[in-house]
Amino acid sequence: MAGFRDNTTTTLAAALKDQRVTRIVLLTNYTAEKDTWPNQQQLPGTYLAINRNVTITGAQGTQTVLDMAFKLSAALLCGSCRLTVQNLTVANERRGNGSPWDFFVGPAGSSKAAIIMKDIIRLRYGCTSANASIIVASALKRPDWLPGSSSGSQEFSVEDVDFQGHMYPQSLVSLDYAADIPRTVQEGRGAFGGYAVWGLNVTQLCMRTVATACLETKSVDACVNDLIDQALAGGQSAQQQQQLPPGLLAAAIAVPLLIALLLALAAALFISRRRKQQQQQLDALKQQQQQRLLQQQDSAKQQLVTPGGKSGASVGRQFGTDADPETGLLPNPYAAEGSSSVLCQGPLAGGSCWQQACLTSPIVGSLDNQEVQFGKLLGQGSFGRVYRAYWAGREVAVKVIDHDSEAHASVANEVELMLSFNHPNVVRALHCLTWTHHKQADVQPACGDSQHSLKQQQQQQQQQQQGTPAALANRSRCETWLVLEYCDCGTLHQIASEWLPGEECDEQMLERLLLLRDAAQGLAALHAKNVVHGDLNSRNVLVASSASSPCGMTAKLADLGLSRVLQQHATHRTTQTVGTMSHMPPELLRYGRMSTAVDIYAYGITMYQLYTGEEAFRNLHYGQFYNAIVVQGARPPVPPDMPSDYALLMQSCWAAEPGERPGISRVLQCLDSMIKERRKRLSIDDTSLPPPEHSQLQPWQQQHRSSKSSWVPLANSTNGKPDEGSCSGSHSGSLPDVAEGTSVTTGVTQAAATESVTQAPTSHFPAVPVAAAAAAAQAEEHGNDIHHGAFI
Ligand SMILES: Nc1ncnc2c1ncn2[C@@H]1O[C@H](COP(=O)(O)OP(=O)(O)OP(=O)(O)O)[C@@H](O)[C@H]1O
């Protein structure tokens, strides 16, 4: 706790509250305590009022640190009050975002309230230099809890130039952004939140500014955070260091040192964990290779065809579907082929390799033969090819992913997550093999000598962990084979392309709703385990035949967070956009904030795409898209012929505020009641939907897609879900009213906050979920992070 001096020693909040106090001196570094400030989301309308001119200062020449932190609190300056902050280093504990001044507000429209920064060192690793930031700041809506919020957008202007001193570059902070002001202009002042900010002798605002090229492809916050990462990794340029005043120079040396120390500590922890894991992997590998060698000696029958190997004769072969009545296994279509064994010759041509890791889903059970026999190419995504294949007596799809050894741990994490799911509406991952490839010269002799290979592997892994330049230059290429449940009907996108766009035909609508319901069930399974898909769109939903499904097909979620992880490690720009931009909600675009509510937004856009057959915002480039979604709050146009219940659910899913979107269980309830209504119209007299498919591994080889129009009456069973009939839109005048979505930022794995909800029975829109928002705010304040496609 810091002390203050003005006849008394007290907290900053108490001193500001006391209207007699006009000068507050910070005796020590201070970080605003969240408990001492009124929280606007818990106590709306109670803000700390400042009704006089007041100065907060550090002792002369000390540059004490004032960290206002980011709180959902506000101190309200009167219309003509001036808050002067001087002789301080101003910080904000939030990483990329937030000016310290977003804590203070003035009355809407006030031109006289002002915050004056004087003799301030304000350190900010990254700022944006885009002119667009002014537009964004201008159009920002004041949050409901701020005074004068009814007045709409923030005001922002650059006028009465007044900044002095060294600035890098000369810039003006407005909310989360810094706007460039040409050096010829003598700095400026901006008005926002009902007050003007003046900077007098402000020595440093931004260490670096974001390149416009980054802003063209990523969100502002993602770019700022990238910049911070670079700064943390590489430090600042010598030129910039020369410009620093002595106090700042000391800070500039101490801070990176501290950060380096922390990083070293984290790296040491990480390395020791990885070593342990790798030792385990090596042990397992050793065992497998020994077994494999024994098997090879016993039998020369097992043959392997690889996508890059001697597979020409096999590619394009169709599988039979006659399962052995006793074992339930399919005959091997390649058994008679004379293909050569590539054990330890590897899928990557021209060098040696070894099988580095091998994971099998617990749902598969023990296996005698894990070799993969490849069939025809099914498709190609941004990060690999997908083949039809035969594995362990099953017809499967194998995703072959190219990556380098650096990405291996992240890929393995995502794969492990996929292997852990066993739900009928999530594509099952059955098995995974990773091959690591080294140049022939690096590995002598060629593998086959498993002992030698293991030793080499250990050495190389050690080198890589140590990050020596030679090892980094020699970073190995890897190929991961992810064995997946085969989905014989393609993607939901392909299925939807056969529908007549926009036509409200009950049968077609029912099929659409049933498949959407499947996808929602998949999401519910993910969200129940605190996993966010993070890249939901109709191309990432696969469809398989299912005799037990009313429309003969079941939709299953694919991909989870794999694509995103691969993109993070990509050394080249892919031609396709990962994390389809059109499905990204404002909070993800703006703050990189990932939560279950991100999936719900994407679900709404998917509903639009499935109804209209059109990609939302197809022709917009990134800047236009960002402006439309984040700044203007635009959404795709609702077609006039779209049924009102469908439109209502879709629109509630893409609500701007994550807390206003329905939770996945509410989405399911709505879909159930919509399905029920269509079934009634089609005179299908069963009153309930079938329960979710049993989550055991199904004998896929026995599933065949029936004709899409061959409607099977729904089983007469109950799903046990209450049907409150409140999703029928204009009929009942209400909307889904359960809000979910812990608001958290991307990055680290952790537990989600439990939420309660506020119901809005009569309103067209759900009430703001106070507890949920508070939990979200708390999560944010505590730096709670999640990672899409990962446990939260
Ligand atoms: N389990 C599967 N069963 C049947 N076909 C599949 C399976 N997984 C993928 N496919 C097919 O392979 C194609 C490529 O899939 P992949 O996941 O590599 O890329 P994508 O999802 O289309 O693109 P991206 O990786 O860029 O998101 C899919 O469009 C689909 O047609």
From TrEMBL:
On whether Transmembrane helix is a keyword of this UniProt record, the answer is yes
Does the record carry Transferase as a key word? no
* Region span, Disordered: 304-332, 446-468, 683-762
Q: Where along the chain is composition biased (Polar residues)? A: 695-720, 742-762
Task: Kindly give the Gene3D superfamilies that the UniProt entry links to this protein.
Answer: Phosphorylase Kinase, domain 1, Transferase(Phosphotransferase) domain 1
Keywords assigned: ATP-binding, Membrane, Nucleotide-binding, Transmembrane, Transmembrane helix
- Record field: transmembrane: 248-271
> What is the protein name given in its UniProt record?
Protein kinase domain-containing protein
